[in-house]
Amino acid sequence: MALALVMSLPQPLYNETLVAVVTGAVLFTLLVQGLSIEPLVKKLGLNEPPLEDRLSKLEGTLEAVRNAAKRIPELKSGGLFSARIAGQLEQEYQQNIDKTYQQLQDLRKDHLSSETERRLLYIHCFATEKVIYYRLFSKGHLSEEVYRDLAHSLTLQTDSMRHQGQVPAYTLHSQTRQMLERKLLIWLSHLPGFARLAEAKRMRYTTRTYEKNWGLYQGGRKVLRELREFKRLDPERSAIDEVAQSYQRWHDNAQQRLDAAAEQLPEFVTAMQTRLARRTLLQGQKEDLQAQAEAGFVPEHVASELIEQLQNPLRNLRGYESHALRLDPVELLHQVPLFQTLSHEELGHLAKQLRNLTLPPGEIIIHKGESGNSMFLIGRGVVRIVRESSEPELQGQEQQLATLLAGDFFGEMALLHKTPRNATCRSITPCVIYELQRDAFEKLIEQYPILQEKVEQVAQARK
């Protein structure tokens, strides 16, 4: 700006002298700032990286040096290696480990409060978990949809922990949104022509939930292993215990959900595990062929041809195994005491009248007070019948009336007597349920009057 003003002056006003003076002043100012700014930056501590980066740098260095030190015994056992040199290296690395560890402890003592360390440890674990999910996805063990959900969840958890110091209440979909989605599926299932679409979405939700729980189980297990190693190397870090408790709880919850799915949907879980095992073995073959090609044991063009032959099976083993959720309705009906007097042919005719429903845990199948035009048979899973308590001190709370298992049926009272539903029925575990509509039921009892008598007996016993 100063130079521009001087250059714009008329010639008689010592233009050249002023230009030289101003140019010198500008260059002097730049030179003085350039020489003085670095000490000022250092004095103010602006040249130091953020605390999180310094902590990560020291932790990474310490882990790398420890892993390198573990290889010294391999050098000794390999022969043709001086024990004196190995001893010197071992002493040198141990000194390096002690020095880095002390720097890490000093940094924590001087700059880290217990709350800050807790946050940083959570963030570190979230980053480790995200890497685990990416590896599972890259090997085809997680679908892209599930991987994106898990990665997005970890991103939200990281942001919440960094800025608020706590894990958010939910990271993907709120309870309200999930309830609205379920109501939409129920509404779609009653629209002509949309029942199959609603059922396909339910089956997809069930398979995706199982895959997500499997991923959470794997991620939690590996993070817990890393936290145990942290505790072994640094027993004084109190934050490790709190983070480990959270991960242990999440890991146990995922395991319980997997166990419930295995118990209630054994065919589906068996099919999913078979796909996983086949995919893991094929992936191992692929990686071994790549390693042999790199080492020169197998010609590259031969290895490429063999790997190409594995690509199609690997691609086919990606995704879901939702068809295993479909049970044989004839076999199911044969196990229901109500229909055991019917022949196989009659059961086959009846099975054609059933509508399949695949439900996740917590799905409301029947709402108290709504009109009833169908009854339901449980193929797999557990269904609980509840009603609002009539006792004054428990007003507004649910009262459990019954728990139904595979082979049981419900919803028959409203169907028989054309009255509103007198209770709410909710799935407790993943369920496969078959719905029998009123028209099909009335035709059935016309042909087999004894069936109505049996249904009436069950309904009377449940009153």
TrEMBL record:
Transmembrane segments: 17-37
Localisation: Membrane
Membrane-related topology note: Multi-pass membrane protein
Residues in Cyclic nucleotide-binding domain copies: 338-445
One Gene Ontology term, aspect cellular component: membrane
PROSITE patterns: CNMP_BINDING_1, CNMP_BINDING_3
Main location: membrane
GO molecular function, one term: intracellularly cyclic nucleotide-activated monoatomic cation channel activity
InterPro entries: CNG_cation_channel, cNMP-bd_CS, cNMP-bd_dom, cNMP-bd_dom_sf, RmlC-like_jellyroll
SMART domains referenced in this protein's UniProt entry, alphabetically: cNMP
Highest taxon, organism lineage: Bacteria
Keyword list, A-Z: Ion channel, Ion transport, Ligand-gated ion channel, Membrane, Receptor, Transmembrane, Transmembrane helix, Transport
Entries under PANTHER family matching the protein: CYCLIC NUCLEOTIDE-GATED CATION CHANNEL SUBUNIT A
Name assigned to this protein: cAMP receptor protein
Organism: Candidatus Venteria ishoeyi
GN (gene name): crp_4
